[in-house]
Specification:
The protein is mostly helical. It contains 11 helices and 2 strands, in the order E-H-H-E-H-H-H-H-H-H-H-H-H. Strands 1-2 form a two-stranded parallel ribbon.
Length: 324
């Protein structure tokens, strides 16, 4: 027979339980900060040092709590953790996710400090012992001030050159994870669907049929590109980031690239729809050239020549095949 485990309610905890919970929480937070530091150490060594020192700060909080528990209740600390208390804030295991960005880690750290501050404020209200209330209140203030402390650590360890270097690394990661696969998807969706869409258009001169073929080609290409990108590289060795993010970027942009010149065929007049679709095609191709120039630092006219020429050839092929 299986019995359901029932977590304890926060309001039912004794003062000893509250101290034990605070001790285990500070220990967990210190370990999380050290995990973040290890994630950042290779690409963002200065930021890793910041998280190392924040972990040391959490160790200091834990030692103060242990000393108070020893004075009030002895050396045996009850085993009680976050997951044992109903309604207690839970830490999502973000530190287990591969390829976390620096911005995401900083955001998670800020959320950790806010959660800890709320806990200490509520815990102080539940305690009647003056020394316990004082320590919990002091820790709430410390958690509230950790954002300022983190900024002080960043100023201490991140000089202008180091900060610029980390910003370049973060930009590179953004390009590898989102821009590069998204651009590849947009190019594939815009160019590869030209031939089937315009071949169908000129072969049937039926706008609804052309629209259906365009949607099918775009969605199919998006699914294919998304899975291919996600499966081709897990990002561990290449440093290109999460395969799921890259797959989403590539798949969505592939679909968007194809739908751009399929949607005009919702217009019932064939030649009106076709002229608009051709205009959309050249807008897409120029947009690709602009993205290459802005993010990939490809000279604009070279990018435009390559993309527009390639797209025009595929478009012409589709028209010729459909008219044959």
């Amino acid at each position: 027979m299986r019995f359901l485990y029932q977590r304890r309610r926060f309001r039912d905890l004794s003062e000893q339980d509250i101290l034990a919970l605070a001790i285990s929480s500070e220990e967990d937070d210190a370990r999380i900060y050290r995990s973040y530091a290890e994630i950042l150490r290779k690409d963002f060594p200065a930021s890793a040092v910041v998280f190392d020192e924040m972990a040391v700060e959490e160790d200091g909080h834990r030692q103060r709590l242990i000393e108070l528990h020893r004075n009030r209740f002895g050396d045996v600390i009850p085993l009680i953790r976050r997951e044992h208390v109903a309604g207690y804030y839970a830490r999502r295991p973000v530190w287990l996710v591969k390829n976390l960005t620096l911005e995401r880690i900083r955001l998670e750290a800020e959320n950790m400090e806010r959660d800890a501050e709320r806990f200490y404020l509520e815990a102080a209200k539940r305690c009647t012992d003056a020394s316990t209330r004082k320590l919990l209140g002091d820790l709430a203030a410390a958690e509230a001030g950790h954002q300022t402390y983190a900024q002080e650590l960043e100023e201490k360890h991140l000089d202008d050159d180091t900060e610029a270097s980390e910003e370049r690394a973060a930009k590179r990661q953004f390009l590898l994870t989102w821009i590069q696969p998204g651009l590849a998807g947009l190019m594939d969706g815009s160019v590869s669907t030209l031939a089937p869409i315009f071949a169908t258009a000129f072969a049937t001169q039926n706008t609804w049929t052309t629209f259906l073929v365009g949607v099918a080609a775009s969605v199919g290409a998006g699914i294919s590109m998304g899975f291919t990108e996600a499966a081709s590289d897990d990002g561990q060795l290449s440093g290109r980031g999460s395969p799921i993010k890259r797959g989403i970027s590539s798949g969505v942009m592939t679909t968007v690239g194809g739908l751009g010149h399929a949607l005009p065929y919702l217009i019932t007049d064939f030649w009106t729809a076709t002229v608009i679709a051709i205009i959309v095609v050249f807008i897409e191709l120029w947009a690709i050239a602009w993205i290459q120039n802005k993010y990939m630092e490809t000279p604009f006219f070279r990018a435009a020549f390559q993309v527009v020429l390639g797209g025009a050839l595929v478009l012409a092929a589709g028209v010729l095949i459909g008219s044959g």
